[in-house]
Amino acid sequence: MNLFYLARRHAFVMTLFAPALAQAARPMAADDASILDAGHCQLESWSQRSSAQTEFWAMPACRLGSWELGAGTGRLQEREGAQARTRSHMLQAKTLFRPLSTDSWGAGLVVAEQFHSGDGGKGDLSLNLPISFSFQGDAVLLHANAGWLRERTAHRGGATWALGAEFAVTPKTSLTLESFGSRFGHSYVQAGVRHTLIQDRLDIDASYGERLGWRGKERIFAIGLTLAGPALH
After folding, report:
1. Which domain does 77 fall in, by range?
2. How many separate domains does the chain show?
3. Which residue from 15, 42, 28, 225 is spatially nearest to 145, judged by alpha carbons?
4. In this structure, are strands 40-50 and 124-135 parallel, antiparallel, or unpaired?
5. How many helices (H) and strands (E) does the chain have?
6. Between 10 and which of 15, 48, 117, 223 could a Cys-Cys bridge form, CB atoms 3.0 to 4.6 Å apart?
7. Which CB contacts under 8 angstroms, 24+ apart, belong to 207-213?
8. pLDDT, tens digit, for every residue of 3-41?
9. What is the mean pLDDT of the segment spanning 168-194?
10. What pLDDT was estimated at residue 50?
11. What is the Cα–Cα distance from 43 to 26, expressed in whole angstroms?
12. Residue 215: CB partners within 8 Å, gap ≥ 6?
């Protein structure tokens, strides 16, 4: 999930998070300065529920050369009407200026295009610059994102942002905490947990988020699954 996706969706629906195809692994909205290993692919899938709607997403991505390329689709079901359904589709490319390494820092670039059913084929273009920092042998990771979103249907553009942290509490379990927002939407906070079932192959995650200043009136719950590994040759 990426920052563009989150900022766009919250502005449109509420309204994450991208998101995500290439990110600081689920359930975070913020991107990080890393991509898949050469020749590897992953599939992120998740279900998310808010006061406005329920969503189901599938986001595959693969490493090709120095780029991580992804394409995903989601189904959105509004809570107020059984027939109020829409679909979203995303294309995304991510590369690194400096890979993140242990007890160091890294930086990258993410370009994404998102399309919504009923938009007449007009997608929303985004650019995002993630910077990540590693501390204590990767036990603590900090991520900062600054980006730009162009909504073609609304004929407007504006800044997006995210700040997040990951804390390794065991070799297989991490806790996440972050805040993110956009010029068009609102600011949100989100906490999550990720657990590895099979090392470098299978993760599960869950998250809870709220809109800042609304005292629980806008809540977001999500559960997800990530499959990863080398591509078939």
Report:
1. 3-230
2. 1
3. 28
4. unpaired
5. 1, 12
6. 15
7. 207/27, 207/176, 211/14, 211/186, 211/187, 212/179, 212/181, 212/186, 212/187, 212/188, 213/187
8. 444 444 443 333 334 433 334 678 999 999 999 999 999
9. 93
10. 86
11. 11
12. none
Residue 23 is predicted with a pLDDT of 46
* Distances in whole angstroms, Cα of residue 56 to Cα of each of 50, 196, 207, 225: 12, 21, 15, 12
Question: pLDDT grade, residue 65 (50/70/90)?
Answer: very high
The C-alpha atoms of residue 61 and residue 117 are separated, in whole angstroms, by 22
Q: Which residues contact 47 (CB under 8 A, 6 or more apart)?
A: 54, 55, 56, 57, 222, 223, 224
pTM of the model: 0.86
- If DSSP codes are grouped into helix, strand and coil, which group holds residue 69? strand
Cβ–Cβ contacts within 10 Å for residue 69, how many? 20
Q: How close are the terminal C-alpha atoms of the chain, in Å?
A: 27
Is the pLDDT at 190 greater than 80? The verdict is yes
pLDDT attached to residue 121: 64
How would DSSP label each residue in 13-50? Answer: II------SSSSTTT-SS--S--PPTTEEEEEEEEEEE
Structure tokens at 18: 């991208």
Q: What is the CATH number of the domain that holds 34?
A: 2.40.160.40
Joined tokens for residue 69: 């390329």
> Are 201 and 229 within 8 A, CB to CB?
yes
